[in-house]
Design goal:
The protein is built from 15 helices and eleven strands. It is an alpha/beta fold. α11 links the parallel β6 and β7.
Amino acid sequence: MSLQIITISHHKATLNELGQWIVNEQLLSSNLAEHLQYLKNQHALNGLWYVATCNRILFVLSGDAPAIAHLSDDTAHFWRNYHPQLSPADIETMTQKSSIYHDAAAVEHLYEVAASVDALVVGEREILRQLRQSYEVCRQAGLIDDTLRLLSENTVNVAKQVYTDTKIGENPVSVVSLALKELNRHHLAHDAKILMVGAGQTMHLVAKLLRAQGYHHFTVFNRTTKNQAIGTLLNIPIQPLSRLAHYREGFDLLVTCVGNSENIIDETLFAALRGDSTAPAYIIDLAIPANISPEVSKQETVHYIAIEKLRDLAHENLNRRRQEIQHAKQIIHAHVKTFSKKKPPTHFGVGNGGNSPKDKSRKK
């Protein structure tokens, strides 16, 4: 038995690339659970844990050593089965930008991801919630074996210890708060008209923070009007996305976060939404891929804030917390040493495995 992580993250891929490579229900003829079960069966795996966020695609895999070794030798085959709609060129790019971790190195990498040591925004606790949520989806789909179950339990415990014993999560900064921090540089008036396209958890957080700052003029469009959480928060009805093209009340700030393979707001729609206004337009685009077309984002009167543009802010955050990262890594390394003693009959030692030769950042 062996463990392996195959992952593509913000370290090697752009966030737009990651957004295009993530498999979701819209791309599948079956549901996601069935697709993951197919992937598990195709590669003769014992367990599969799939995590997809705005800045990484990550598979934690367990199985017999030969099956795991085959994945290392032909990662492209794994990605083709994962996303059969992609072109051979895209599969080749995914393969080149993949990182592969084996056994103890895989455990260590997962711990670092969960503890937000490997995050785009170091110290952001959201990744731990995403890991737990994705694990539960895979568990309910019958994809989790005893090895991954135990690994998940230890991962949660290690992350909690890191947050407790270090300052890595002190004054946590999320991508959303980074975006609003950037917006606040422009001193937008509190009576500004805010148009929100999307109503998921990210947008709910945006609305909550904007309302806390004193903003009160919101309009929300979403694919479905069934999710009323943001409507309840703002005390307004959610309007169907199909009606967005008919919206004519204008806006000062446009916030978008709708999962879509193509831009949903092009020059024509943007012009219709703006009407006769010549005032500066502020846009926060939190979607992966971007919801706003490049032609719109590059207009002179548009102040465009997107996840890709938050990298510099995230880098500043990383520098401030670098000392805490070292402390966190010491905690993580100590736990990696004890994991093999707790596991079911899968044996490996710390120092074995490591990154695949395909990963140019391979640790010696």
